[in-house]
């Protein structure tokens, strides 16, 4: 007796990508997205060309370990400000997400911004959504080759300029421009320009929605920041269902407001159907709102079938005023309060920051030695950093023990944004101080500006 045949099914672990052809859409939210594109790119591409005090306004000079931000010069010792900046960005992300979902993803994320730019180039060269779909289905011809090659050349030019601009934040842009003219890039400059250009070209030109759906971690944990009063892009199923195509005259009794035109799907950059409810793949760009409003205008139905709304608003039928009132809930107030305090502390610290730093390093090779006339001498190294963009001459003084004085020059001159190690010898008279460690303090003061001063404690060793 033969055994029954076993049915074998193959389950693939990888789903092939379905090409998405987003339709161009006009509307209020589309205008806001393009305003964000212009704003972010004017800042990104423009900052490296701005001058401040005869230097680049924003420059992260890693070789010199100096970071220029307009009138502020930061050093590695100022790493705390980077930590504060990251904390501010994190809390701002929490706040904006709790209020209105993925605002960052939909309007200002670099992936969204450059995808918008690359899709605009694609539309200008290959045509509308239907034209692009027809072009991809056609066999290769001279016209198709010209359009495809022109698109990729344009993408490559934007990507290379983006890579050049990125490196311009670390190497002065005018220096880079001269190196372009003479083809004298260093190996690291070549690497980072090409790497950043390749990342821009690949992410915005080819991968697009796959970055948002599979690579970006934000979509995975965004729901933990949502609550029932968070604004999200929402389809009003009570008003829209049952959906179906119909004439304008028949729109009323048998059907809901949704005519099942699929425009909301066609304009979605990630290819989802918002009518299926809130999804992790939705980046909150609101393109579907603009598309649906346009359709509602054409069929003479009120706008808002797809709109920004909250879960409570949809269930309880809340109006705009009630939604705004619920926005000021405890969670939002706590996020806002913490964010305000951190920003105020960071701004206050930068405003009150003294552009002068000093580290005191005692010579550990000599714990304290006796010199002429029984005096005790300790040797130190003062690491002085003038973070001001003016040259200063500083006076060095020491205090803490009776008769303590410098036995080395008490003045030093530092150029703008300069750092120098200054060896100093400190002496006290015979019989002064206590045996062992004695607390002392070094102070440096700018001769031309008495307000520019800094004081650091140290230890003076008297041999037992």
From TrEMBL:
Keyword Cell inner membrane: no
Membrane-crossing residue ranges in chain numbering: 32-50, 81-105, 153-170, 190-207, 332-352
SUPFAM superfamilies on file: 4Fe-4S ferredoxins (SSF54862)
Designated name of the protein: Cytochrome c oxidase accessory protein CcoG
Gene behind the chain: ccoG
Cellular component annotations (GO), alphabetically ordered: plasma membrane
Signal peptide as annotated in the record: none
Entry keywords, A to Z: 4Fe-4S, Electron transport, Iron, Iron-sulfur, Membrane, Metal-binding, Transmembrane, Transmembrane helix, Transport
The species this protein was found in: Noviherbaspirillum saxi
Residues in 4Fe-4S ferredoxin-type domain copies: 249-277
Pfam families: Fer4_18, Fer4_5, FixG_C
Molecular function via GO: 4 iron, 4 sulfur cluster binding; metal ion binding
């Amino acid at each position: 007796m033969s055994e029954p045949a076993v049915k074998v099914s193959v389950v693939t672990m990888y789903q092939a990508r379905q090409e998405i052809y987003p339709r161009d859409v006009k509307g209020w939210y589309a205008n806001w997205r393009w305003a964000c594109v212009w704003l972010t790119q004017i800042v990104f591409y423009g900052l490296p060309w701005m001058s401040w005090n005869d230097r680049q306004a924003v420059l992260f000079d890693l070789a010199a370990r100096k970071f220029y931000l307009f009138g502020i010069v930061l050093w590695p010792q100022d790493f705390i400000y980077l930590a504060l900046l990251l904390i501010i960005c994190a809390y701002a992300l929490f706040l904006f997400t709790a209020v209105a979902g993925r605002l960052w993803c939909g309007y200002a994320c670099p992936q969204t911004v450059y995808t918008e730019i690359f899709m605009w180039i694609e539309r200008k060269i290959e045509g509308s959504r239907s034209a692009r779909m027809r072009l991809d289905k056609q066999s290769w011809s001279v016209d198709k080759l010209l359009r495809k090659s022109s698109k990729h050349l344009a993408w490559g030019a934007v990507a290379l300029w983006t890579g050049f601009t990125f490196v311009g934040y670390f190497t002065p842009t005018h220096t880079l421009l001269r190196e372009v003219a003479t083809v004298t890039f260093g190996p690291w400059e070549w690497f980072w320009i090409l790497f950043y250009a390749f990342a821009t070209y690949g992410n915005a030109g080819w991968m697009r929605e796959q970055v948002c759906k599979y690579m970006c971690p934000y979509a995975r944990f965004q729901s933990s920041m949502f609550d029932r009063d968070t604004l999200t892009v929402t389809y009003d199923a009570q008003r829209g269902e049952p959906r179906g195509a119909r004439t304008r005259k028949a729109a009323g009794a048998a059907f809901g407001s949704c005519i099942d035109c699929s425009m909301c799907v066609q304009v979605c950059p990630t290819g989802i159907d918002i009518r299926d409810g809130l999804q992790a793949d939705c980046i909150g760009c609101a393109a579907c709102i603009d598309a649906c409003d346009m359709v509602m205008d054409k069929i003479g139905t009120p706008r808002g079938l797809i709109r920004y709304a909250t879960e409570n608003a949809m269930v309880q039928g809340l109006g705009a005023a009630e939604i705004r009132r619920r926005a000021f809930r405890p969670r939002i107030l706590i996020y806002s309060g913490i964010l305000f305090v951190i920003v105020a502390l960071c701004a206050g610290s930068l405003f009150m920051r003294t552009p002068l730093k000093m580290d005191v390093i005692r010579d550990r090779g000599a714990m304290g030695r006796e010199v002429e006339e029984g005096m005790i001498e300790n040797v130190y190294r003062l690491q002085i950093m003038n973070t001001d963009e003016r040259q200063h001459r500083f006076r060095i003084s020491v205090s803490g023990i009776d008769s303590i004085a410098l036995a080395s020059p008490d003045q030093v001159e530092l150029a703008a944004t300069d750092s120098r190690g200054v060896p100093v010898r400190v002496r006290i008279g015979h019989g002064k101080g206590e045996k062992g460690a004695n607390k002392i303090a070094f102070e440096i003061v700018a001769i031309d500006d008495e307000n520019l001063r800094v004081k650091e404690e140290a230890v003076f060793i008297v041999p037992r």
